[in-house]
Structures are given as C-alpha cells and as structure tokens.
Amino acid sequence: MSFGRSYCQTRVRYRSPRITGISSRITHGPTVERPFKETASRSGSFWTGDNSTLDISVASARIDALPPSTSPSFLDDARSQSITEIPDSAIAAIVEDAAAPEERRFAALYIATHRLRRQRAMSEYRTLVDKYRHQFSQYELFQTFDVAYLRSLGDDRRAMERSLRQAESAVAAFPQSPGVLHQYADLVATMMERFDDVGESRSRDAMDAVRRAIKLSAKEPPKYWSTLARLEAGIGLYAAARRSIAEALELSAIEPDPTRALMYNEFMVIERSISLSEAQGNARAELLSAKGEVVNMRGQLLELLGLLAAIIAFIISSVSGASSAKNLGGARDILSASAGMIAIVFAAFSYAFKIATMRRAVILFTVGVLLMVWYPVTHHIGLG
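Above: the chain's sequence. Below: its structure in token form.
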C-alpha cells in the first residue's frame, strides 16, 4: 500500500518499490519517479491514480459527517463502510493538509492509525503517532493511540502494565465509548493469556467493560464477542466462553469487512484455545482431587500410627504404674493420669499434622485434662 508524497499528480515518486504503508505516504520523501498504476487497496477500494480533487473532497465530506471525536460513537462511525472505502492516499492527504480543519485532520489521523493497527504495521504506526503527537495530543482520544503505542513496545509485564494504565485513563475519559471500552478489555484479556495473576477484580471489570461496549455499539462487532469469550475462558467460565465465541463466529460470517476471512480464522483459533483451556482445567482439577485424596490417606495413616503408639504407651505406663502402686487407689490415679496425658498428646499431634479439626482436637484435649485431674481430685477429697 505504498503511496507517493505527491497526491494530486498522475506520476508519483516512490522511495523504493517495497510496500511501506500509510505512514510512508506522510513521512517519506521522493527519490525515484515512476508512473502511478491503478491498484486495489487493502480495504477493498481502488486508487484512482491521479488521486483527483474529487477523491479528496468526497473523503473530506465523509469525514466531516462523522460525529465529534468526543462523541462515544466516533470510534465505531470512523470504522464504518463509507469510511473504509476512502483510499489511504486521500486519508494521508487530509492528515498532511495544514489548511484543513483540525478536527478533520485528527479524524483522518485516527482512521490512518486504525488501518495500520489492523495491518499489524506497528513500526509505521509509532512513526505516525510520534510525528503528530505535538499537534494532536490535546485531544483526549489521543490516549487510545498511546495504549496501542505502549502495547507494541513489548510483551513483558512492565510494558503491558503501562499500556493498561493508559487504557484505564482512556476509559475514565470515555466511559460510554464502545471502542475505548473494548480496547481496555482486549488488553486485559491479552494479559490474562500471558500472565495468570492479573487479579479477579480486574478480570471482572474487563468483562463488564466489553459487555457495555456490546450494548452501546450501534451494531455488535464480532471482535467484541471474541474478547468477551477470551475473558470468560480466562476465569474458567468455559460454557459462557463457547457461547460468546459462537456469537463472534456467526457475526463474522456476515461482517462486511475485507478482512473477514482473517477474522474468522482468528476466532476459530480462539475457539480451539477455549476447548484446550477447558481440557487443561479439567485435568488440573482431577490432579488436585487426586492429590487431596493422597493427603487424606496420609493423614489417616498417621492417625492410625499415632493411635497405635498411644495404645502401646498406655499399656506400658499402666503396667508400670500399677506394679509400683501401694494400693488400688494409687494405681487408679496413675492410670487415669497416664490416659489423660496420652489423650492430650494425641490431640496436639492430630491437630499439628492436620489430621483432626480444631473441634475434634479440643474435645480430645478436654477429655485428657479431665482424666488427669478428675480421679486424683475426687480421691483426695474422699469422693473416689
């Protein structure tokens, strides 16, 4: 989609024969002169070759018909069919026209950056944003440019967190804009896929944001539904995720978008990843369940071993105490105290090794104390 720097001539100067994108139309200078050939754009329209004044005037009229950039519907309207039919060369000419109204130029800049994002031409995107930052950074919507700008700088946690903070600021400025809400939700979904610990609160906020975007949008963009599916799958709502991605696939089949086939393939990948995530989640749950059963068996085994040790100790102490006692009362006191001590030790042992609950341990401890104290006390006061 390379364009020359001269927009209203039948011969266009090229920097090189390589396709360079929208930003090259705006930033690169001429070197080699070649006759311009009529060619199809990536958006489905055709370059007229001479890029006549009529093309610029029609493009200007369509852009001027858009709502103000502060309107919640601006982003959706700027991606409408009538706008996507405008040649890239006309968009670039409007952006560069210093005599054009500033609102028109900013709208054209948004359209240009959106097309570059769709084409994944992020290096050219950053060049374009940097070039016009000083002219248009006062527009609040420029924050959305920086969200994608920062996101393109890397996939590490730090870069994505910076981008997310910018997205949150954009949502605060445009809480009723479907495009801004979806941009935030899409970024959270990406972070959930790359990092597990984004936080449940942030995940829920992102799902609420994309649901609001779907309701506020004049139509239901399939991309919004696919983002919702990714968020739902990220927190384990697999049934809901399957319904959402099915909705996205159905809408993408009727979407009047030249990238419809690419979009459909992307959604199919998301559908497969949801099924894979569900299978992994089920396997993880089964593994945790098996691990819990092993831990319980280990606890029961330890409990049995502890009980056996307590019985052996009780027998030995009883025999030893009874043989050394001078009378029946003394032997009874010794046996009672021994039984109480064993109960107390066993209660502490069971609780320390997570074998018994707090309630069970307290009951055992109480029984042990009573056994140690009751008979000796009653014997000495004459009740035994």
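The CA atoms of residues 150 and 166 lie 9 Å apart.
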